[in-house]
Specification:
Elements (H helix, E strand, L loop, with lengths): L1 H10 L4 H53 L6 H15 L2 H29 L5 H4 L8 H21 L1 H8 L4 H24 L4 H23 L17 H34 L2 H37 L3 H37 L7 H27 L3 H24 L3 H12 L1 H15 L10
Length: 454
């Protein structure tokens, strides 16, 4: 009982913005922790159901479909910032117009893309692209791709409602919805294992149902209840707000494209230059180590919205205090990652048994990659909140340009295989690792001039 009172006291101590952040972060850790457990559960079940090659196909297709998520031209992130600014200013009319305009833009983009993708899916040489020896699987893969893209399109449009939660600094509830999605997916997979034979199409359908339906239902519910004031409508679409969303959003779009090239191409490169089985090995190592990535994603999502409000109100002291705390947490995650690396062989044995063999060196380089990603993210959350992201955009572009050539060079020329591809990611992020903390320091000291202030 005393422990509960002590924890409650810690949560309620500090600035109102900090209290809200701490409560959301605690809930998010609980929800994401349960999500990680579910992820660990369905990975070996999926691997047993589909086998290493088919599961590798599924994971690679997931990476390809993720590319289409960047075609919103950064509208989602642009909406998060502009909506956060409108709420900080108390301008509800502008907030509703931004939501309506964003929904209209994203809906228009994805409706057109969905029609095109469905039309050409069967014409794409999937078996050649994915290095699948069994050419008879072409139609099965094409159908899977259509199912996954349809789900992704519905998810992306309906997930705009999540930007409202972000702007209101209620990020934990989004993690709850994600947990519900993962839990539903796990239940359907267990059903498939017991009542069907291995099928990419059925597996993809399970992903489709859960991935698409949850955010759709969330939007339908909240726009009738808590978010009535933000409910999107054609009459509130404001053409003049397109530039406001797109100008900032386009920079976020470029950044997201660069991030996808750096982080999401690993599966594709491994499938193309190594083999599909190694895609599964890489994903297993990444999923295991994502536990310490999870904490930083929680911090980033919560503190982004808080940083928008703080910067809008010129509360630099709060921002300085926050970044100092996050840096301390980052050093804590480094220690955690070392412990996880040492325990990895035993965890893999218990978790995956003898299904696949994951080299310890692969685990180490994945851990380094995640640690450096966290380092960049903790400074970028401040930059994103201030909207001063042009220098960050240039650094991401440079990283994206050199990432694939370096990864292929390490993998092919130096014969490092999958490990070389992950090392390519690490090397390509060096510009961001150096520039992001320098820019944040200048902003917080009000000494940002020239490119540092854009």
């Amino acid at each position: 009982m005393n422990l509960i009172k002590y924890i409650k006291g810690l949560l309620e101590k500090g600035h109102q913005r900090t209290v809200l952040a701490k409560k959301n972060i605690l809930l998010a850790i609980i929800y994401r922790g349960l999500g990680v457990i579910i992820g660990f559960a369905y990975f070996p079940i999926s691997l047993d159901y589909l086998g290493p090659v088919k599961f590798g196909i599924f994971l690679t297709l997931t990476s390809i479909i993720d590319w289409f998520g960047e075609l919103d031209i950064g509208i989602g992130n642009g909406l998060r910032n502009r909506l956060g600014e409108s709420l900080a200013d108390g301008d509800m009319s502008k907030a509703q117009s931004y939501v309506s305009t964003a929904y209209f833009a994203v809906g228009s983009i994805f409706s057109g893309i969905a029609i095109i993708f469905v039309s050409v899916s069967f014409l794409i040489p999937w078996t050649d692209w994915l290095q699948v020896e069994d050419v008879s699987m072409h139609n099965e893969i094409a159908i899977l791709a259509i199912l996954m893209f349809a789900a992704f399109a519905i998810n992306f449009i309906s997930s705009m409602v999540y930007q409202i939660f972000y702007a209101l600094q209620r990020t934990a509830i989004i993690d709850l919805f994600t947990l519900i999605t993962k839990g539903s997916f796990l239940l359907i997979i267990i059903f498939l294992v017991y009542f069907t034979e291995d099928s990419l199409i059925l597996f993809g359908a399970a992903k489709t149902v859960t991935f698409a339906s949850v955010p759709l239902l969330v939007g339908l519910y909240y726009f009738r209840k808590d978010f009535k004031a933000y409910r999107p409508s054609f009459k509130y679409v404001n053409k003049s707000y397109f530039n406001s969303l797109f100008s900032l959003g386009f920079q976020f779009f470029i950044i997201k494209i660069a991030m996808v090239i750096i982080h999401q191409t690993n599966n594709i490169l491994i499938a193309r230059f190594v083999n599909l089985e190694d895609v599964t090995k890489y994903e297993a190592a990444y999923k295991y180590l994502s536990i310490f990535l999870m904490l930083f994603l929680i911090l980033t999502n919560q503190l982004w919205g808080a940083s928008i409000e703080a910067y809008r109100k010129k509360d630099m002291e709060w921002m300085k205090s926050t970044i100092k705390t996050v840096i301390k947490i980052w050093f804590g995650t480094i220690l955690l990652s070392v412990i996880m690396i040492l325990l990895a062989p035993y965890v893999y044995q218990v978790w995956l048994k003898d299904r696949i063999d994951i080299p310890l060196l692969l685990t180490i380089v994945v851990a380094i990659s995640i640690a450096l990603t966290n380092w960049v993210n903790m400074f970028n959350l401040i930059l994103n909140g201030t909207g001063k992201i042009r220098l960050q955009m240039y650094a991401w572009i440079l990283a994206a340009v050199i990432n694939i050539p370096i990864s292929i060079f390490f993998s092919e020329n130096l014969e490092l295989g999958t490990i070389g591809i992950v090392l390519g990611t690490v090397v390509s992020m060096l510009p961001l690792i150096i520039l992001s903390p320098i820019q944040v320091r200048k902003i917080l000291k009000l000494k940002d001039k020239g490119i540092w202030s854009k």
